[in-house]
Amino acid sequence: MGGYELVRSDDAAGAALGPDLESGAGGPTSKAAPPSPAARQPRLVSLDVFRGITVLLMIIVDDAGGFIPALNHSPWDGVTIADFVMPFFLFIVGVSLTLAYKRVPDKLEATKKAVLRALKLYCLGLVLQGGFFHGVHSLTFGVDLAKIRLMGILQRIAIAYLLAAICEIWLKRDDDVDSGLDLLRRYPYQLFVGLVLSFTYTVLLYGIYVPDWEYQISGPGSIEKSFSVKCGVRGDTGPACNAVGMIDRTILGIDHLYRRPVYARTKECSINYPENGPLPPDAPSWCQAPFDPEGLLSSVMAIVTCLIGLQFGHIIIHFEKHRARITNWLISSFSMLAVAFLMDFVGMRMNKPLYTISYTLATAGAAGLLFAGIYTLVDVYGFRRPTITMEWMGKHALMIYVLVACNILPMFIRGFYWRDPNNSLLKFIGVGA
């Protein structure tokens, strides 16, 4: 078995944005005496470092993406550095869950806890990303429930976490594992779930008929402006007529979708492409339409990323030797990258807003390579000092995400001012004056 300590955490988002869940998270707390410090096994530090690097990358692309296009999300097809952040978090969820549910004394209790954690994380996402904190500069807050955004980053992580946790709790056999192929015999049902989800996504993306549709936006003076988008197609993967957006508009409702779509920076929609800018005179009607990059159908493949992370975590559990772990990770990662680039070459483009299969495999393969590299440096060769900052950020990732990425810290700082709201601490230090 793997030789790494499982660290206790009751954080609802522990698997993705915080420390690993405890070893006994799957059931009642064991009454056995805790092992002595000498018997405790070393912590898997590389997972904390990987999480910290991902958090730092998220902060960098959020702050610098508007100035450096290469750091911003791709306007549509293609992948930039920013497009790796979400898959990396989901990959970490999967790896963490294998450690959390290495031993499950009570499957029903473990499932109950997983459901509660997922609900807590989803509700936190509604508060932070549903539109409640929308006025950093004006110090305004609150959201109309008729227009609250129902999906988001934390909501997607909650969904993927729950499905992956259920798979790890219920869908595994007791076969011995001596080689990489033995993992297929021990976890065939998890692999089957991943294949079914991928097949379902593909059928829906390329098989659903997308009809014409309309939307309204508020113009000057709160005047509603209506737009009509012509579609009437199947299998389209462009911004206007894809099945991902159509399913979200039908099930969630267009008022509950993200109102600053990434495709607003495409050539068709911005004269400052690839940055945001005024609409061109001949801009198509869909340029200002809401579109959720963390929607329902695209979240199906996000679950697959989490399931891939599970399989990488299984390698830690079942292989003790560093060489065996690294070899299996590298083979899996390079295989996924090869298939991803082949798919992209034949026309199944890598696309983050749609979360296409080629994008799923490419980002999961990249996550596997990065994790293998960090593991080699940190856990094999012991380079702890250069990564101590990333390790700290990884252990406090959820707090950092809430305070920085969700604008809680900027709103708190701006909330204290002298006589005029513009006379805040930010003006004193020369930021955002």
UniProtKB/TrEMBL annotation:
Q: Which Pfam families match?
A: HGSNAT_cat
Show the stretches that span the lipid bilayer.
49-72, 84-101, 121-141, 153-171, 191-209, 296-317, 329-348, 354-378, 398-417
Ranges of compositional bias, category Low complexity: 12-33
**Keywords in alphabetical order:** Membrane, Transmembrane, Transmembrane helix
Q: Where is this region: Disordered?
A: 1-39
Xref: InterPro entries:
HGSNAT_cat (IPR012429)
Residue ranges constituting the Heparan-alpha-glucosaminide N-acetyltransferase catalytic domain according to the UniProt record: 43-166
The protein depicted here goes by the name Heparan-alpha-glucosaminide N-acetyltransferase catalytic domain-containing protein
Q: What is the scientific name of the source organism?
A: Panicum hallii var. hallii
